[in-house]
């Protein structure tokens, strides 16, 4: 008799556990956003469009539905650049330079979410994430061989190959379209915006939005133009110059590589453009304003990790950076009738791809408007001009002032890491609960 009770107890425990696992799994995979699987671009080989290591490029497509079935949102993935052979060789062995090492699914959240309450204006559109594996913001066209192996610098061809793959899937009949991207992908948005428009029907509504891609031609705290030298090497190594806007490179002769900087291309872009950026963008703070080469003694280390530890002199430098950014945007702010902007004052980088910053009760705001509302109002022409500029730090109380404690080189604009961390925490909590249940029931049924 006692034995049967024990057996029943054990069975009940097992059923409960199974139920628990069944219910917790969708939570684990569904919480931060939907996972969408990868499509390799098979026809890319014929176009010579390869990732750094020679692997095929890829994208992730989440089909639109209902009223959004003919609308398309394309998002360039970000992830820094490689501007010399050594760093490109390293990158080719990672998911930043090869689809072989990439996760075969990615999370679609924020502006890519298909949940109407998290993404009211674009949730039912066709949404595409273009995977980044060329190391030059989808703009290079060259290669490097050392006799035994080849490095492919084919970003421009990858862009082309992905568009040609998507056109017959419905992109060629788009009614509305938005080209976007974050960080190095935000920069791609500036570089490819007008080319994107040229592929779509003349009567389609096409617009572009860069997120954290307004990389400034900044002077660092050691008075060097670190970003300018970096981009100059990149443009030369990866054969980017011939893909830059010819009107711009002509205007900036003899320094055509300046046309890799958004602030110099901006006035040549004809498609309506939205610029989303923090005036204290953390990546630019760490790599443009205070790159490691400009702070060999490490006086900025604490300030870089936590802005409340910055001394008055360091805060002045940060305010100077903001002024320079606003200065570079002034013409656009005053003169661009169809442009939009959201330049807030949070220590952040990439704000459109996470629910927390894109649209949530606690997400950043300017004049009480979230990023999702401002971008939506601009895209659909609702209300007045959508150009928002925040007051200087520390006035904005809606910021999370998120400075990740990762080392500067690790912090290559990696949203996936944040999402993975979120998931890891969720899984850990669930596993703990799981073992708690398991032990409770086992103890109950065995005693
Ligand atoms: C959509 O998002 C809202 C707000 O975050 C959430 O409460 C709801 O559960 C989500 N719906 C689905 C189907 O995931
Ligand atoms: C060529 O490059 C590959 C990696 O890109 C390296 O393993 C190899 O040693 C190099 N060969 C020579 C001769 O430099
Ligand atoms: C654009 O024109 C095509 C062909 O005339 C038509 O089928 C389509 O509905 C139009 N699209 C828009 C957004 O008006
Ligand atoms: C867009 O880019 C592709 C290849 O990169 C090129 O063939 C095409 O002519 C470009 N379109 C325009 C309008 O520049
Ligand atoms: C930065 O500038 C200093 C002088 O202001 C110079 O000594 C140094 O070599 C420069 N560093 C780089 C990386 O250009
Ligand atoms: C930054 O420093 C302040 C004051 O020293 C502290 O209250 C805050 O928790 C720190 N923030 C982070 C993210 O470490
Ligand atoms: C706006 O455009 C006009 C005419 O092209 C130009 O003269 C003016 O300087 C521009 N405004 C700013 C702030 O650059």
Automatic annotation (TrEMBL):
Family: Belongs to the pectinacetylesterase family.
Gene: LOC104736397
This protein's UniProt keywords: Cell wall, Cell wall biogenesis/degradation, Hydrolase, Membrane, Secreted, Signal, Transmembrane, Transmembrane helix
Location(s) in or outside the cell: Secreted, Cell wall
Residues passing through the membrane, by range: 417-443
Keyword Ligase: no
Enzyme class: hydrolase
This enzyme's EC code(s): 3.1.1.-
Function, in words: Hydrolyzes acetyl esters in homogalacturonan regions of pectin. In type I primary cell wall, galacturonic acid residues of pectin can be acetylated at the O-2 and O-3 positions. Decreasing the degree of acetylation of pectin gels in vitro alters their physical properties.
First-listed, main subcellular location of the protein, grouped into a coarse class: secreted
Protein's name according to its UniProt entry: Pectin acetylesterase
Signal sequence extent: 1-30
KW Cell wall biogenesis/degradation (keyword) present: yes
